[in-house]
């Protein structure tokens, strides 16, 4: 982008590198934009660039007089294949900082400890995406402020993993002497930070190690933990923190290692984040109709009957011919591909290998009965292209690391989204000579129970409400280099399935609850795989947990007078994500002795926040105490609110921080989410004289606090905003925000003077979009901010600096919303 004093700024956007070949000889697509012709595009270009430049530590300013030698050295090293004549960078000079996706994962992990007090945490990320680096960064965080670093035991099953892990920890900690190996004959002497093989521990005798000796125990490849050797180690040691690392939480034998962690994953590297960070190979996914009808195949315990699938797939060779035709159509050179094919049974795998070999494509079958030597030979032959396809039955769902795999054949319906991702992950390891992974998924007509929405969400990260539109429009927004292509028949089938699943037929939900029984909402959601949105979103004959329980015959009482209206507002508690609010709301609802008039000032504000969440216009009550008594008197409403809060707060993935100074008495917590009603009540504004439902502006001066509250929606649409209110608001970094005042605000106005002179406290509330499936989106409270700079007037363009960094995950999403 070129800035000009005349105002005639220009920008070039395209695929060309700044090289002679790209600009002169290459066939590249570029577009020239100008401030005069396309001002909105230049604004977006500038905001996106500013966001990357100010937040990503990988970008540094280049000053020729300062950095010339460093650049020359790097260019020589690149030309020499990574080597340089200069001295090798010493370990002590390495500065290992988390990537944005890693920072978000770390913050989720830390919240599990600080918010939920969980000391056993599972980290899930694909092979090769930096799980060990994440563990080392977490250890560095845990060690901060301690006179003595925590005693650490890192356990793995292979020497190569342990050697690399020890090296990683040393680099992250900047300490070449950190840790000791306990593998291959090496024995620790200090016993402070030990990297041990499970074999070394068991041969030594885990009972000889005091159970509380190690503060932190990290188990790599935790999907092996079901083995007797691991179970003995886990059963004896009692660390302060247990951390499991795995790419495959669900094993082929049905064991789910989440059971070791109370059924929870502390943090997970999502596929689209890894693809966006270019640490995994892009994929081209083709959904291909195979002509099979699975709608009559028996469905039990969440999956199809394997024997019936086998019979269907092996009944004749027509499906095999269709698979071979698809390979010939989609794969440039089938004779040089390296593919994994996932089958429904041993017989199916052997059948496919036989038919492919007969067709001239070298193939073998590998399954649980294959001896280790033959399995190793098959993998080696795949790497060298002596074999083009390995057909397997679950064997390669986990524990396989073959970066060479460039094709995945999905020859059976995989019901679990987790196992689907594990299978996809077998081919996502990057290689310089592998530009893309090709995935051929052969799709039949599915039963209604099959969850296409989960599969698509696992690949794309799209919100539930946008999946159908994405499928109709052929998935236009995917990570760079990725494609999802559904043939016409598959697209129609998928969209039909999505409509059924996203509508979540109420009778089916009622039937499931009737079978499960009268359980808490959290248990019902865990058992069914549903979400709060499924239960709470509005619609005919639906819209609340109480309605679901009543329809299932679990509530026999007659609905109260206020129930019909009030239950529609229970969804207003679906975002409660800080402990103060969750615990206080519970106390107010369940403690009959509490009267509004006897509450302390902070709890009174929380009571008003809860009141206006239920009744934005006041509900017709004369006092807040009357509203409290009404909620307490209705057991059905009370349980609905409490169950929803339990689920919402249980899913909180960030820490919430109290305000300090003159605002410390307020119940608002920085990084918690609030509805507009809660925010105004929490600022001691909402009352029966000033009802939150009447406030629609984006700014509010709170005179008694001398604070300006900014309510910012990043993603603005013409449907929700008039041309005069389409302000340029976007995050520049995790601490900087570009914001525009109202069009009427001049520099000399009292409001403008407060902004530019810093005479009031600026409080920032931000949301990505205005609405979600439950209604208005809550705002994330980013806390106080101070002026950095300002420009112009009517509106005034201002850069604010937050006093506390916004959460990494929020910033990563905000960049997308604003861009």
TrEMBL record:
Which residues belong to any copy of the Helicase ATP-binding domain?
A: 112-267
A Gene Ontology molecular function term of the record: ATP hydrolysis activity
Q: Which residues form the Helicase C-terminal domain?
A: 308-483
UniProt entry keywords in alphabetical sequence: ATP-binding, Helicase, Hydrolase, Nucleotide-binding
Q: Which residues form a coiled coil?
A: none
Superkingdom to which the source organism belongs:
Bacteria
One Pfam family here = DUF3427
PANTHER family from the xrefs?
A: ATP-DEPENDENT HELICASE LHR-RELATED-RELATED, MITOCHONDRIAL ATP-DEPENDENT HELICASE IRC3-RELATED
Q: What name appears for this protein in its UniProt entry? A: Helicase
Tell me which species this is from.
Answer: Gordonia spumicola
